[in-house]
């Protein structure tokens, strides 16, 4: 079953953010664009490169009105330990959600049941708490924040311009399409 168009299920979790422990809930997402970036585990190999890439683009994401949440099945205490001991993770200013109960990971359908770890899942969530994009990568394939930023811009454009759609390789400021009978068979 696709999660596209579905509302984020209720959750409450503890996170480590910018030097303190905070509580994050599904209600925390309302009124802003959000990225949920699930990853397998702290103290691993591909994960810190992805999370650092998100941090390197965090200011650009904030300018777009987007908040970032990384999520693994580790605890918020483990996130703090990783943050304190890793040069790459030590840069992170966004919330690192702990999901040891695997509730959020199951809600987003990215739990690898055999391992008890999250798959590499990326979700863009609109200000109403509705999932707009889903991307799941195999464990060895890292993600690119630049591509994610392009997807966010497209999702934001479509939301504010009903009746228009963004074609493949769309970039901000380029032409969009207006689906109509006139376009059928012409593309």
From TrEMBL:
Keyword Disulfide bond: yes
EC number: 1.11.1.26
Enzyme class: oxidoreductase
Molecular function via GO: NADH-dependent peroxiredoxin activity
CDD domains: PRX_Typ2cys
Subcellular location, principal: cytoplasm
PROSITE patterns: THIOREDOXIN_2
Origin superkingdom: Bacteria
Subcellular location: Cytoplasm
Record domain Thioredoxin: where: 2-157
Keyword flag Zinc-finger: no
Annotated family: Belongs to the peroxiredoxin family. AhpC/Prx1 subfamily.
Described function: Thiol-specific peroxidase that catalyzes the reduction of hydrogen peroxide and organic hydroperoxides to water and alcohols, respectively. Plays a role in cell protection against oxidative stress by detoxifying peroxides.
Subunit structure: Homodimer; disulfide-linked, upon oxidation. 5 homodimers assemble to form a ring-like decamer.
Protein name: Alkyl hydroperoxide reductase C
Species per Swiss-Prot/TrEMBL record: Rossellomorea oryzaecorticis
Lineage of source species: Bacteria, Bacillati, Bacillota, Bacilli, Bacillales
């Amino acid at each position: 079953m696709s999660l596209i168009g579905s509302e984020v299920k209720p959750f409450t979790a503890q996170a480590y953010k910018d030097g303190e422990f905070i509580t994050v809930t599904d209600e925390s997402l309302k009124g802003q664009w959000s990225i949920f970036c699930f990853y397998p585990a702290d103290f691993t190999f591909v994960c810190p490169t992805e999370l650092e890439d998100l941090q390197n683009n965090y200011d650009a994401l904030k300018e777009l009105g987007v908040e970032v949440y990384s999520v693994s099945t580790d605890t918020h205490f483990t996130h703090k330990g990783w943050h304190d001991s890793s040069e790459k993770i030590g840069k992170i200013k966004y919330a690192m959600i702990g999901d040891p109960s695997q509730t959020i990971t199951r809600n987003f359908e990215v739990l690898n049941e055999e391992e008890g770890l999250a798959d590499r899942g990326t979700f863009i969530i609109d200000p109403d708490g509705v999932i707009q994009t889903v991307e799941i990568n195999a464990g060895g394939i890292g993600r690119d924040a630049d591509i994610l930023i392009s997807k966010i811009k497209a999702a934001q454009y479509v939301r504010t311009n009903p009746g228009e759609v963004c074609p493949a390789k769309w970039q901000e400021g380029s032409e969009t399409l207006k689906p109509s009978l006139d376009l059928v068979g012409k593309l």
